[in-house]
Every structure is written in structure tokens, then in C-alpha cells.
Amino acid sequence: MFDLAAQAALTSLPQIPFPSLSTPVEPMPRLAAAIGARVELLVKRDDAIPFGFGGNKIRKLRIVAAQALGEGADTLITCGGVQSNHARATAAFAARLGLRAVVVASGARPERPTANALLDHLLGAEMHYVSSREARDPAMQEIAATLVREGRRPFIIPLGASTPHGAAAYALAVAELLTQIEPPDVIVHSTSSGGTQAGLVAGCRLAGLATRVVGISADEPCTVLTPIVQRIIDGLGSLAGAPARLRAAAPTIEVDDGFVGDGYGIPTPASREALELASRSEALFLDPTYTAKAMAGLIAYARRGAFEPGTRILFWHTGGQVGLFS
To answer: Which residues are catalytic?
Structure first.
């Protein structure tokens, strides 16, 4: 059972009052058969969240944007790549809430915006382009300082909204999952900035589950990402009023960086196969940057016999399919 006191503490965090973000859990028997896996294969469809083209960032920002409003913000500043799902989701929240959105994107300004970059434009985000990922945080700080001098009230949202408040959304999502199905044996998902994985691990710990949470990295090595996830969990423990319980040993933080390939956003043969298999067997659309690589990891695990027959495997679809149109 989920820790009711912790659940109450997290539920009491201010949230943008949208309709329920509860998303369906669906079986994937044809995909399981296609990869020769004698397991129960399920998918949690956060790609089906109706607002802002969906995805995990919508769950996170429902709490993080409310935090910004609580601090009197009139501008949301965030960062990502040119095709950032998070930037698009932040711009969508800003538009819905009547706030200004400023996005610092690493990469060249596109001559003809497509996919997420097009949506950023349609949503009215103010775009700033920098040459590298390392330049994004300093640029956000500089923009925020300028806005403060102009009398505005900016709120910086870190990459991916991967903060304790953002992760709280995924701890609560575990509680949502447990109203839908019996606990899965394994959850596989895409991990990058760490907030979603922190929330899933924390949620499983708060529910007393032995569920493995396998984060398939889209970019960072496990040696970098694992301590990031742990720091977010530590902060989430304070929000939940359960720091000791969230320092428990199980489930462990499991990051697999073996499916990144040549780098962030660069498809691999395995991710291309995963994208096509999911589409053709289940009409489930993945994205080339995140979820296709996570599904490639799940498929590789299944093919090498890492899952016992009859194991319940849940693929947590974190969205991003807008990237198919870039």
C-alpha cells in the first residue's frame, strides 16, 4: 500500500487545476510475440495526456508551474534542445496561464521550424539560441537577471522540470498506476534529466514495491545520471515528509546507458527497429530521441532472456512523438 501520509503530503502540493491526467494502461501482446518474449507486456500511455501534446513533462509541469505561480512569477524560463519536448510543454503551460515563456535552446535557429520548434513558435515562446548544452544554464541566469531589472518576475525551470516538485508528479503517478493494475515486476522508461526516474523510484519505495525501475538513458552516462536521480529523491523525501523511507535500498537506482549510441537524438539501428516494431504491432508511436531507445533496451533485455517467463513488464511511455515530424 502506498504510504498514505506521504501521498497526502504530495497531493497537497499546489497543482494547476486541469482535468485528471490519469492515463490508460494497455496490453501489448502483439509486440511481446514479435520479440519472442513470454512475458505480460504493458504500456502506461503518458503520451496520451491530452494537453500540450502530452508526455511526462505535462505531469511534472502541472506541479512546477503551480509552484511558479505561487511565487508570483509572470515569466517561465527554461531550456533544452531545439526540438525539446520540455520546452514545448513549458510554452504550453505559459500560454494557458497567461505567462511569458522564454526558452534557451542549444543549437542553430531553424530556418523553417518543424515539430516541437514549430509548436514553440505557435505558443508564443521567446527563443534564445546558444552554441552548446553547457551554455544554457548561464544564459537562463542572465536572461532572468535582465528581466528582474525590468521589473518582471521570472521563474527558472531547470532542464526537464527535473526538480523534487517535478518528481513528485511521478511518485503520485505510481499511486495512480496501482489503482489500475497489480504492481509490475519491472518498469522500463526513458531517462535523461532524472526527474521522472526519481519520481518512479520514490513512488515504488513509498508503496513498498519490489518493482525494478530500469531507466534507459537517452544521453548521460550512468555515473552522471545516478547521483542526479538520488539528489532529486532526497529533495522529494522532504516534500513527502518521508526522508528515511526514501533512503531505503529497494528499488535501487538502475540506469542503463548502453543504448545511447552515437549521442543524444541520434537514432541507432536498435531504436529504429523498436520504433517500427511498436508502430506495426501495436500502433504505438515512439519518438526517435527518447522512447525508441528505451524500447530498444526493453527489447534487448527480453531477447537475451533477462525477464523470466510470465514476468509483468510495464513500458512507461513518456511521450515525445511530436519529434517524429522534425
So the answer is: 84
